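HOLO CASE FILE
Compound: uridine-5'-diphosphate-glucuronic acid
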Amino acid sequence: MKIKSICCIGAGYVGGPTMAVIALKCPEIRVVVVDNNSDKINQWNNSDLNNLPVYEPGLREIIKKTRNKNLFFSNEIDSAIQESEMIFLAVNTPTKKTGKGAGMASDLTYIEKAAIKIAEVSKTNKIIVEKSTLPVRTAEKIKEILTSNSNNISFEVLSNPEFLAEGTAIDDLFKSDRVLIGGDQTPSGFKAINSLKEIYLKWIPENKILTLNVWSSELSKLASNAMLAQRISSINSLSALCEKTGADIDEVSRAIGMDCRIGPKFLKVSPGFGGSCFKKDILNLVYLCRFYNLDEVADYWLKVVEINNYQMHRIVLKIENYFSSISQKKEISILGWAFKKDTNDSRESASIYITSKLLERGFVVNIYDPMVTSKRIINDLVDYNNNPKDIILNKNVNIYTDFNKILSSKSVFAILTEWDDFTDLNNIKKNKVIFDFRNMLDKKAVEYRF
Ligand code: NAD
Ligand code: UGA
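Model generated. Tokens follow.
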């Protein structure tokens, strides 16, 4: 069946960019992206393309070409569901905060609510596509919700996990390494798989589209994130050994990566991986392993998160040790709040942890990021510390929106995000002490690096 109308529930970092690319590549399909956060929808509809809720290189240009032609952002969820043949679920799946599995399992309430809504309002058969990252066997649960609430309408549930990385989302979507489509191995399941495959074939070569069973597709997504994060924890753990032995982690990383069986990617030392997914997906994997009584496997993957915490904590101690060796006011300027460059997303950014711990230790912290708003930085600190008064009322946090102004501060600097703006040494005035935790600057220019 050729799909002519798509609805996507969830207008976030995945829903927005993925639907924009589908709308661009398939002008004959009407794509409606809905969200229950009306501020976000208003932002997507903002005539000023500099104020979209998601910053991604290349996204503005696509929105300009497609918005209100075949791509629409709306909070009229019921009608968007009713008018579509295929519905993508791109809602958030954060780690559960309370109840069974709190702190480990993914919170599926957003997915469940979306499924209940689809079942309630649908009047025609639909293909439901899991775009969110979900624990293996969630499709079964979604199908249960859909069938128990609907009036003899048939639903096919596909798993089509997203592999884009923030900051390079558009490029990743244009040139995906692979697209997974998991579906029931039944005649109607195969039909649904083919309908989604036809959409991707508009720009993805057939040999990169892998059709597989739903459970393999769901698990492959969790496993891919776990393997990527594992590489980062491996290199970060070795950075500690390099410091003890005089080896240089950059040289070691390069040497390891030249082995074509290993490859050079994801071997860059850092203050620890951030982002909304690596930690949550590994914890979810750990929870699943424990559920199936695979404790050894669970412990193995948990270590990846523990090493990440260790790395962030090491950075805090390094900064503190430096200050205890000199008689200087404990003031530091943090360059970079986003969890990586080219995104305005700061979820789980190492900067949040490092700043919070430095504040606890009596530091004055100045903060600058080219894309993360001051409001978001404050919210991050308030959420993390669970005590708004401490953060907002004390005067130990100064947020700068002007790069040159923060550079003129007399403090010590710490680079925590690899924004291109921070690589140009000419910009960073002489006689500054710079802790380069992203290994971006010339060795001679910095006081401390890994
Ligand atoms: P997000 O928080 O940016 O966006 C999710 C959106 O869904 C929010 O705007 C929220 O308001 C909306 N929403 C939640 N429940 C809703 C409901 N019932 N009805 C309507 N709207 C609802 O999250 P995200 O970063 O886009 O991630 C979404 C999913 O994709 C997660 O499962 C994540 O693990 C996965 N993923 C994320 C990335 C990434 O780079 N961010 C990459 C691949 C996969
Ligand atoms: C990651 C995966 O790369 C995507 O494939 C996946 O779709 C996505 O998670 C998801 O499921 O959400 P993302 O978190 O957006 O993408 O960004 P990455 O480029 O993977 O970076 C994650 C973190 O690891 C960042 O903090 C980054 O600075 C850090 N990192 C990355 C390192 O510390 N070293 C490296 O060598 C690479």
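CASE NOTES: The first strand starts at residue 5 and ends at 9. The chain has a mean pLDDT of 94.
CLOSED: yes
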